Amino acid sequence: MAEIIDGTAVAAAVRAEVAQDAAAFQREHGRRPALRVVLVGEHAASQSYVRAKARAAGEAGIDAETLARPADLSERDLLALIARLNADDGVDGILVQLPLPDHVDEGAVIRAVDPAKDVDGFHPENVGRLVLGEPTLEPCTPAGIVELLRRTGVETSGAHAVVLGRSNIVGKPLASLLLRRGLDATVTVCHSRTRDLPALARQADVLVAAIGRAGFVTADMVKPGAAVVDVGINRVDDASRERGYRLVGDVDFDAVADVAGAITPVPGGVGPMTIAMLLANTVEAARRRAAV
Ligand SMILES: Nc1nc(=O)c2c([nH]1)NC[C@@H]1CN(c3ccc(C(=O)N[C@@H](CCC(=O)O)C(=O)O)cc3)C=[N+]21
Ligand SMILES: [Mg+2]
Fold first, then answer.
1. Which ligand is nearest to the CA of 278?
2. In the CATH scheme, what is the homologous superfamily, with its name and number, of domain 140-271?
3. Where does the chain bind NADP(+) (predicted)?
4. Kind of pairing, strands 160-164 and 186-190?
5. 223 counts as catalytic
């Protein structure tokens, strides 16, 4: 039976450290680190994520404000809002919640955010720095996964890490992080066109599932003793729950837990770490901006 990695507990530890850093920043600079979250439209999951982010930021001593705009906000007006936040010296971090409505070009919006305030780490300049191994604001979910592995003592050096999924938000940046000096994993990235994905997954010492399909990773795809990180957040109908659904990951948890050495649950695994790293990035952005 695998060790169940408690992402909520690790995230709480990170958040307590961030709160200390935020308090130190306030003592030194006479103001709190400031985060602005931009939410366009009424996507239900986005609304709940954004609420969770703002609440966690407030608890860490970050001045957090959510700027909610209607779904029909034009791309022009959204870019103007971002320009205003870029120009505001009292704003350290800007997060534009994704997905955006179809009439908005997400790439254009991501490029519009000042890289120094890009607490999502999605701007091409920050992605480039990440790939080059230079210090940068790291994307929150990959950074949270790495922090979770580090703090639970999962060895990555020389390990074969297999990442399932090649998204710009998780798979690609996580592969870059795991390759960096200090983490030193051997990385394989698999996707929908990968030939014999189960055979590659079975070679993984660290297996990361970020595909977005409930129960995709089955026990036969996992090497005994492997560390399994589940990034999936899938809603499945469940009439017995008050909300009418429950959350499951991309991993068939019960069966895989019998084979793996360690495994992250959903909920309570990677999700809380994503939020913790957003707070850490906000204080980091505030520090760097104050230093120049
Ligand atoms: N610009 C941008 N940056 C993001 O970082 C970003 C985004 N857009 N769009 C959506 C995804 C998703 N995401 C999550 C954050 C926390 C949980 C989380 O805390 N999940 C809880 C459960 C939450 C629940 O109960 O619904 C858990 O896994 O335990 C999940 C997902 C950030 N994202
Ligand atoms: Mg984020």
1. 2
2. NAD(P)-binding Rossmann-like Domain (3.40.50.720)
3. 165-167, 233
4. parallel
5. no
278 CA distance to ligand 1 middle (Å): 11
Alpha-carbon gap, residue 106 to 127, rounded angstroms: 15
Ligand 2 ion: Cβ-proximal residues, 5 Å cutoff? 120, 140, 278
The pLDDT value given to residue 1: 87
**Structure tokens that stand for 13 in this block:** 């530890």
Q: Are 227 and 207 in contact (CB under 8 A)?
A: yes
| CB within 8 Å of 103: residues ≥ 6 apart | 74, 75
Direct distance between the N- and C-terminal alpha carbons of the chain, in angstroms, rounded to an integer: 50
Burial string for 100-132 (b: 16+ CB within 10 Å, else e) reads: beeebebeebbbbbbbbbbbbbbbeebbebbbe
Q: What is the tens place of the pLDDT at every residue in 147-204? A: 999 999 999 999 999 999 999 999 999 999 999 999 999 999 999 999 999 999 999 9
Atom of ligand 1 nearest to the CA of 45: 26
- Residue 292 scores a pLDDT above 80: no
Tell the residue nearest (CA) to atom 24 of ligand 1: 267
Write out the two tokens for 210: 């970020």
Q: To which H or E segment does residue 230 belong?
A: strand 227-230
Strand partners, 150: none
Please, which residues bridge with residue 263 across strands? Answer: 4, 228
Per-residue DSSP letters for 143-209?
HHHHHHHHHTT---TT-EEEEE---TTTHHHHHHHHHSTTT--EEEEE-TT-TTHHHHHTT-SEEEE
> Strands 3-4 and 262-263: what pairing?
parallel
- Any idea where the domains of the chain sit in the sequence? 29-114, 140-271
Domains 29-114 and 140-271 share a fold: yes
Residue 201's identity, in one-letter code, is: A
Determine if the pTM surpasses 0.90: yes
Q: What is the CATH number of domain 29-114?
A: 3.40.50.10860
